[in-house]
User: Fold Putative cytochrome P450 from Novosphingobium sediminis.
Amino acid sequence: MQHVNHELSPMACPHALADVDLFAPGAAEHWYEAYAILHAEAPVLRLPGEGLTPERDAFILSKYEDIARVVRDWDRYPPTLSLLLEARKADPASVRAMPDIDAMVKSIATLRPNPELWRAHRQQLTDPWVGPGAKRHEAMITGHVDALIDRWIAGETFDFVADFARPLPQRTMADVLGFPLEDVKDLEIWGNAQVMSYVHGCGHNNVLTPEQSAEKFRLLAGFSDYVRTHVRARRANPGEDMISFLTQVHYEALDRKLTDDEIDGIVYAMVIGGLETTQYALVEQAQLLIERTGLFAKLKADRALIRPFTEEGMRLRSPTQGLSTRITSQDEIFHGVHVPAGSTLHLRWGAANIDPDEFDDPLDLKLDRSAVTRHLAFSAGPRVCPGSGLSRLEQTIAWNRLCDRLASLDYAPGNTFLHQPGIMLGTLALHCTFEPETTA
Assistant:
């Protein structure tokens, strides 16, 4: 999905620490120059007064070692959301009643408020569909990849974003959940609403204006109505899709069936996580491939290289660059910087994944890099992305079929390579030329 704000002007490339602002308009065009400065001069950068309350600070972590330590320790660095849930533990109904709490947060309050239930939620409810069990979708994804290629293969140019990378995860997620493909356009609108905070929100906390927030929840009310209609239908007449499974499963961790609200929240999470990461990963991988002479031919000749190519692509150009998702439960020291208890931590995965202290030649794409999956593009620890299996499968199938059906891929004239605002590395458009593979 793409969200264009034509009022934004590109930010100047930073040359010193004083120039670094990861959240300013146009900052995405120079994130990686900023990361080099942070690594060298301020691996822990204080944001005064930008914590959860005005008297608290936030801190940007840009080193792999620090971020890996944080994401693997829920108790010491609890998720920001857990503070909200703890505050309402004495009155569970208040979470449900709050108008500015979305469906996913409501379901987290009952289904996965702690590490044990988070793990059980993933293992029983999502792993069979978008985690290790994603292989069940191989034929379906292959069909969608071929159908999208068929739309432009007879031409001379196409937009890799609009014509391939964006619709592929939309169509895939619709099929996984059991939504008709003709509803994909509506799903795109609702998906845009779900990520509005992360695109148009202000600062590292992604704060929307009251008007933006009202529009977001107006749109999401329509999504909830849509999901509930499907949930009611599947309770009465289940099929072979994920929503049907969720309506019928006896959730062992809580020894009961799921409520409609909980299913709504799970579906919300599937859409918000299932569309963006895969789209942005594919688009950045296309650019990495085009910019490296001979790489496409190498992948065509040896398909075993496609998996390390996609992993290196996600490491080099992380789809989600960073989020403020953790709080310090006690005083901490990161790289010599004192971080008081109660501080917000902005985890900058994009910077960690090119940390020169962690990766040899971090800006090189190495198909033979050892432990190629150890990047943090999907985070790590108890809250690792539950849909990483599906995303990885989509990427692998996409590049296998593109290698089958294209003899070459290159840039068409006129690309600006500009990115959407927010915290995701989203190229707005990528116009490409190609030669079809005559033996495909």
